[in-house]
Amino acid sequence: MRELWSSSGDGQPLPQRYWAAWIAAYVLQLISNQFMRFNRPLSDVFGILNDVALIVAAFLLVTIIRRATRRQRDRQAQLHGR
Q1: Angle separating helix axes 40-79 and 14-35, nearest 10 degrees
Q2: In degrees rounded to 5, what are phi and psi of residue 80?
Q3: Is 1 helix (H, G, I), strand (E, B) or coil?
Q4: What is the rounded distance in angstroms from the CA atom of residue 6 to the CA atom of residue 45?
């Protein structure tokens, strides 16, 4: 992902934000699973936060793919003189 973004990204730290959201979701899921044993409402809160982090990660990944694809298409068009 680093190589793809460095060659066709726009300089914004989207991959770092994506990985941060993905790791946060994983950690929140682990915390939710631990709280499930003795505090169900708190486990549910962490479960919801996990879901939010996964949604953010998914949105960022789609954005990364769309921007990289657009930049690669633009570069291809320039190379072919379109």
Answers
A1: 160
A2: -95, 5
A3: coil
A4: 37
Q: What is the pLDDT of residues 10-69, one digit of tens each?
A: 788 999 999 999 999 999 999 999 999 999 999 999 999 999 999 999 999 999 999 999
Q: What do you get for the CA distance between the two ends of the chain, in Å?
A: 28
Answering whether pTM is above 0.90, one says: no
- Render the burial of 25-42: b for 16+ CB within 10 Å, e for the rest: beebbebbeebeeeeeee
CB 59 within 8 A of CB 25: no
DSSP codes of every residue in 8-35? HS-SS-HHHHHHHHHHHHHHHHHHHHHH
CA distance 16 to 58: 13
pLDDT at position 10 is 78
At 48 the three-state DSSP class reads: helix
